[in-house]
Design goal:
Layout lengths: L1 H22 L6 H5 L8 H11 L2 H4 L3 E9 L2 E6 H14 L2 E12 L2 E10 L2 E10 L7 E9 L5
Parallel strand pairs: 1-6
Antiparallel strand pairs: 1-2, 3-4, 4-5, 5-6
């Protein structure tokens, strides 16, 4: 019984400490420990802004000369111009309201993002894969937009 009471007191003390640290802005969550520095993904700040605005022309400036594009069920390798036209049609039919980043990952010269696009009264999962041939310039190699089937 003493062991249970001791564990309970210890748990309460940890909770009180966590609340005190949180109020001082000093608490570090597990998610914060695993999240890379925000500037590591600065490449996505413009891209996500253009997705949220439905700006296919500006978004296309981030496209590689040829990329794999999937929009709902149509998938193909296309030129930057063809991808821009396809996305313009998609945004015209599905007016974007917001874009929320769900997951980001990276490794040497590669960046990956998954987000949820709220457009045309539906939710779409957007997956972006961008690479760099060196330096800080990234180009989108793959862009996939599919209807969202599960809630996040």
């Amino acid at each position: 019984m003493r062991k249970i009471i001791h564990m309970f007191v210890l748990a309460v003390a940890l909770c009180v400490s966590a609340v005190a640290l949180a109020q001082n802005g000093q608490i570090i969550t597990t998610k914060a420990l695993r999240t890379p520095p925000s500037d590591e993904f600065s490449v996505f700040s413009s891209i996500t802004k253009y997705l949220a605005a439905g700006d296919a022309a500006s978004l296309s400036s981030w496209f590689a000369d040829n990329l794999d594009l999937t929009v709902i069920s149509s998938s193909r390798n296309c030129s930057k111009k063809q991808a821009r036209e396809t996305l313009s049609k998609f945004f015209a039919a599905n007016t974007p309201r917001s874009f929320q980043v769900v997951h980001k990952a990276s490794e040497a010269n590669k960046k990956y993002l998954i987000g949820i696009l709220n457009a045309g009264g539906e939710l779409f999962q957007v997956t972006i894969y961008a690479t760099s041939s060196g330096g800080d310039t990234y180009k989108i190699q793959q862009l996939n937009i599919s209807r969202q089937s599960a809630a996040y």
